[in-house]
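Hi support team,

I'm filing this because I wasn't sure whether my run with BIS(adenosine)-5'-pentaphosphate finished correctly. The job status page said complete, but I'd like someone to confirm that the output block is well-formed before I use it downstream. Pasting the exact inputs I used:
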Amino acid sequence: MHRLVFLGPPGAGKGTQAAELATSLGLLHLSTGQLLRSAAAEKSRLGLQADRYMRAGQLVPDELVLGILKSNLARPKARAGFILDGFPRTLPQAEALEQITPIETVISFEIPESMLVERLTQRWSCPACGTVYNLATKPPRTPGQCDREGAALVHRADDEPAAVRTRLKVYHDQTAPLLDYYQRKGRLHPIDASGDVASVGRRLREAIGLAGSSAVPSAAASPTQGL
Ligand code: AP5
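And here is everything the job wrote out:
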């Protein structure tokens, strides 16, 4: 069973690779960012609390994120394995995760910072199904519209330049220390996250011991299966 954590700066491609791998292996894809954005869109109490932190590019307080993570890991689908995309992001979150479930493999997405800003400014996504596009590297078939849902694509508020700068700083200050934490536990597997989506996917599969197996998506699964 795969119990994976994807670590990396904003725009490194964690969500893109997590969606593909989860679909291909039948894993639960848990993106805390996407769960929080859905809660904000529904205007739930948690969503309203989280929204102001997210818009500013700051981390949502640990206790709020831990609550949403725990309830999702308790879902039956998590028993087949899961990918945590964007969790943990602080040492207290990593320590709390140790108490909830064992994690074997932590993938660190390594990429020059100059590429991140380019990727984020070109990112648009579907508010209905969560599919992520990129105007430069993965444009929708019809400009401005989701290929699956036909919904008008949106640009995330936290992909504006000021919020991106804050997110990068927050990553370096609060999340990057987790690289040492998992390195010391012998669970860290860095991969080169530059290059196209297919090459990064091949490196990812090698890192988790699936070298040689092809990434054939299952027709039944959807990119938002875990959300
Ligand atoms: P979250 O949604 O997790 O954002 P993030 O970690 O900043 O990561 P991104 O979603 O921006 O990037 P990604 O690495 O997934 O890249 P993607 O695949 O989309 O979190 C958002 C906010 O929620 C946080 O700031 C915080 O406020 C809150 N939050 C979430 N989790 C939290 C936690 N645990 N604790 C506290 N707060 C939390 O790719 C980016 C673009 O590049 C796309 O357009 C894509 O198409 C394109 N692309 C991807 N791969 C490639 C490639 N190989 N080549 C070319 N283009 C590519």
